[in-house]
Amino acid sequence: HQLGEHHEKTKESSEYLKYLTQQAVALQRTMNEIYKNGSNANIMPLKFTAPSMASVLEQLNIINGILFIPLSQKDLENLKAEVQRRQQLQES
User: Fold this and answer.
1) Which string of DSSP letters, residue by residue, matches the chain?
2) What is the pLDDT of residues 66-87, one digit of tens each?
3) pLDDT, tens digit (0-9, with 9 covering 90-100), for 32-78
4) Among 4, 26, 30, 78, which residue has the fewest nearby CB atoms (within 10 Å)?
5) Residue 60: which residues within 8 A CB-CB, separation 6 or more?
6) How far apart are CA 64 and CA 57, in angstroms?
7) What CA dihedral angle connects 48, 24, 63 and 9, to 10 degrees?
8) Alpha carbon distance 21, 42 (integer Å)
């Protein structure tokens, strides 16, 4: 496990996988019932939601080591000033 067993994202993924597995087992039981008794059994609709695109991107960023740090406007201005200061030092 790259993130570790106790990481929040690992726990979320494990819970989601457990839920999907339960849905697959329920579907398989229904299919077995249909094969056994003919088409009289009702197939219950599967109940699951796909993860949001934001959640998928966040997970990919974590796995790939991409970290987004929220910066305030003041932080951005300070960063810009620091970059300009370093450029001026290199030019001199």
Assistant:
1) --S-TTSHHHHHHHHHHHHHHHHHHHHHHHHHHHHHH-TTSPPPPP---PPPHHHHHHHHHHHTT-------HHHHHHHHHHHHHHHHHHH-
2) 888 888 999 999 999 999 999 9
3) 888 888 776 677 777 777 888 888 888 888 888 888 888 899 999 99
4) 4
5) 66
6) 10
7) 60
8) 20
